[in-house]
Amino acid sequence: MPVATNDISDRYLRKAIAESNDLGADLARAAGADRAVVVGSGHPLADVLLLKYGPQAAELHEGVAFFGRAGQAVLKSVQRLGVDPTAIYGTNCIKYVGEPEDEARGFLTRELHIVQPKLVVVMGEDARQFLNALGFPLARELEDVPGTLQELTPTIQGLVTPDIDASLDEQSAKRAFWESFKALGPWWSELPPY
Fold first, then answer.
1. Under a CB-based contact definition with an 8 Å cutoff, are residues 179 and 148 in contact?
2. Is 50:89 a contact under the CB 8 Å cutoff?
3. Where are the domains of the chain?
4. What is the CATH number that goes with domain 5-189?
5. Angle in degrees, CA 99, 100, 101, rounded to 5
6. For the segment 57-70, what is each residue's pLDDT rounded down to a tens digit?
């Protein structure tokens, strides 16, 4: 007897949630009791993964990526573009203060395997260089070409934008972020419906 599509989807979702929980537990162990860990937030099988380099104060306080001003700005932007905010997952390259980059690369690689996004929006030069250094299977290096869709892997596209955290306080920086980020709208509109 064939398995229903919804049943398969539910199984993948339960698996992603369990793997995300394991990742969070491993991060907490690696950080130790004296460091705050910032975990990714959003749908565990999102179409779009937002990637910043490191957590800001509000994120460290709450323990959740994209909490605070950056999250509010992104939410407003995706709504303006007509993108379903429930199809987005956000994370940082560095998950806690003082995390060694080699350890952080392993955690981000696991996160990419769990979420399996169709698009990674890389926010800022530090995040772009970090992602390029992952050695993710079949990955190509993303070039510093903001607002242009690029092939990251055969199944994942990349979109480079300026750093959202550095773009919030100056009008020209906000404009530069928006000009590159808005490429998400047409990409989203061409996704096949579920």
1. no
2. yes
3. 5-189
4. 3.40.470.10
5. 110
6. 999 999 999 999 99
